[in-house]
Amino acid sequence: MTSVQVGIPAAVLKPKKVRRRLDMTLWEKLYVAEIVRGLVVTSKHFFINMIGFIFPPAGKKRKIFTVYYPEEKLTLPPAYRGRPVLVADAQGKEKCVACGLCEKMCPAHAISIVAAEKAPGERYPERYTLDLGRCVYCGYCEEVCPKEAIVMSDEYQGLAQRERSRLVFQKEQLLRPESKVKARLSYVRRIYSKWNY
User: Fold this and answer.
1) Please, which residues bridge with residue 169 across strands?
2) CA 128 to chain centre
3) Rounded to whole angstroms, what are the CA distances from 49 to 44, 59, 108?
4) Cα distance between residue 112 and residue 95, in whole Å
5) What is the mean pLDDT of residues 167-181?
6) 105-117, pLDDT tens digit by residue?
7) For the chain, N or C: smaller number of CB within 10 Å?
8) What is the pTM of this model?
């Protein structure tokens, strides 16, 4: 039986020696230099942002990262998990076959499906209800769906409401054409195939 060496030898890591009993000078104990340094950094960012806000550069890209929402909106990465939506096929019908995996997997019990049959053996969700007041945006529903019928979209507006009843969405409100969620679908195929799903 051979022994397996776990970890990296200390000689390779070259650990830095920590001085636990460091005697500080009076100047260091006052922290004046560090306070001044912190004020300089804060003031620098404040004045750069203030000047950029008052006199925005014409025709040039701003150096400030601040986004003036809602006039400006960011292009979200495909990994962003926004409102879960149902994917519609080319005829505008849901791709969902009402297998119930998403309903079963949802840890917050936010999904409710009532299945029906169009023809013998051809199921569809007669009612598909998603309660966004309960949804935790974990993406398990998207992960387990065998038909890529539900995906986490890039929609983030309207997710906060004063009444919980407005956060309950029906199938018709959740349907999105496949072209609209194409980036997310390709991301899902790429990331889940990586883990041999």
Assistant:
1) 130
2) 23
3) 9, 18, 41
4) 16
5) 95
6) 999 999 999 999 9
7) N
8) 0.67
Q: What is the DSSP string of 1-48?
A: ------S--HHHH-PPPP-SSPPPPHHHHHTHHHHHHHHHHHHHHHHH
Beta strand pairing call for 175-177 and 122-131? unpaired
Q: Are 142 and 152 in contact (CB under 8 A)?
A: yes
pLDDT of res. 1: 38
* Whole-angstrom distance, CA of residue 107 vs CA of residue 47: 47
Percentage with pLDDT > 90 across the chain: 56
Q: Quickly tell me which residue has 């598909």 as its tokens.
A: 128
Q: Are strands 168-169 and 150-152 parallel, antiparallel or unpaired?
A: unpaired
Largest CA distance in the chain: 86
3-state secondary structure of 164: helix
Q: What is the three-state SS of 60-123?
A: CCCCCCCCCCCCCCCCCCCCCCCCEEEEECCCCCECCCCCCHHHHHCCCCCEEEEEEEEECCEE
pLDDT in tens, 123-136: 999 999 999 999 99
How confident is the model at residue 166, as a pLDDT? 94
Distance of alpha carbon 116 from alpha carbon 1, whole angstroms: 59
